[in-house]
Amino acid sequence: MRQVLSVAQMGEADRRTIAAGVPGIDLMEAAGCGVADEICADHGPECRVLVLAGPGNNGGDGFVVARLLVERGYEVVVGLLVAPERLKGDALVAFDRLSGETAPVQVAQVHEADVIVDALFGAGLDRPLEGSIVELVEAVNARRRAGARVVAVDLPSGVSGDTGAILANAAGGIAIEADVTVTFCRLKPGHLLFPGRALSGDVRVVDIGIPDRVVEDVVGAVPPLSLNGPDLWRAAWRVPGARDHKYTRGHVVVAGGPVHATGAARLSAGAALRIGAGLVTLASPSQAVAVNAAHLTAVMIRPVDDADGFSALLADERLNAVVAGPGFGVGEAMRALVLAVLSGESARRAVVLDADALTSFADDQKALFGAIRASRCRDVVLTPHEGEFSRLFPEFSDTSLSRVWRAREAARISGAAVLLKGADTVVADPDGRATICNNAQGWLASAGSGDVLSGIIAGLLAQGLDGFEAAAMGAWCHGEAGRVAGPGLIAEDLAPSLRPVIARLAADCDSRSKDN
Length: 516
Fold this sequence. Notes:
Elements: H1 7-19, H2 24-42, E1 48-53, H3 57-71, E2 75-80, H4 89-96, E3 101-104, H5 107-111, E4 115-119, H6 132-145, E5 149-153, E6 168-169, E7 172-173, E8 180-184, H7 189-192, H8 196-200, E9 202-206, H9 212-219, E10 225-227, H10 230-233, E11 251-255, H11 263-274, E12 279-284, H12 289-295, E13 300-303, H13 307-313, E14 321-324, H14 332-342, E15 350-353, H15 356-359, H16 365-374, E16 379-382, H17 386-392, H18 403-414, E17 417-420, E18 426-428, E19 434-436, H19 449-462, H20 467-485, H21 494-515
Helix pairs in contact: 1-9, 2-3, 2-4, 3-4, 11-19, 11-21, 13-14, 19-20, 20-21
């Protein structure tokens, strides 16, 4: 159920299920029943319910919700967006089964409701809300702020199911603000990508009888999109065994910056060690060795002053993961070091490029992408935030486009796994796999947080995960560490907060091993 389907894929799954012999009205009844069950679980029959029903199947789902709630003793009014004679297909069948009160939709209905069901358009909408609908949606959102609860059927009306954006024109756009969204079979990108994620509220997925095999057939050979979580990468991560030692857990090297900017690299190094790398070395400029040594204990320090020195250090193939960029400085020295790392002879090495390593190639992206594609490195991961992404991938900098599409395209042309950081971080691989993260805490928006993430990813690469798996697991662990650290966290809190996160994952792996 962590699969994420596009609007077109979900529509095709519906069509194939119906073609295989399941009546469409049965799917509609199951969907409406799922929504009604969620409403009953949250609200007693004393509340007044308004169902706003649109002209299509989303409205049909709403008719089923209304009928079932009336049968369960709720006071329900159905506000019709179109005249009954304009309804057709399964929506008309569902309408004909109604026994409660119906009336043309009016703003006045909104003011009297305790629970408002948005069954206007759902994910099928591909144009902005306009005309009188805008006034209606404004009234619903205002009523919600006054204390009513809003339940969206499938997706809040006005939100793109594929991008999470509010559908807009030159005059702007508007969408329903829901407390709960009940969707069917699988999540859609619009439930996970902002602003759709915020507008959807608590998203609940209901099984309406579409077989898993149908979904798999629809997805077919298309690289999957998923909600990030342990099921995606747990099998690739190995809990240390009794016979492991530090040399079997990998060795991370972090490129350190000048004496006035040493903190970022230390944050990365500490996080790499905490996530499970057996050894971590900070390659420090000679002038910064004393500063770094004053702060570090378990992390080793080696004086390295230029790209040649870094290459000499990496001649030891046991050093199998590198972090370059945090706090290093933008310019030719950074470019030279990155190219030296990528041109190394070790096919076992994996590389994380972040921050200054990305910005240093803003004027010559082809040099970086060419070096990545020519590299013998096992994996390369790029971890840009929006600003770094727009500099490195200017052709994909339009933030109105899907973050999933943008990250996938960036991975395709760069030849690296790309982690596009943000509140709705997306990880994409050159092979097309992608995942959306939804566990980031707002408190992670703090200086140094990204440096910790780079170190986590490198530590996982050192342990043998591939670039996509390491970036996805790293992003999830980073978000969970933010949850553990809680309000007021600073970057230094994150690495220690990984301990209970790792312990939970290890216990889960142990439990699954015993079950098998």
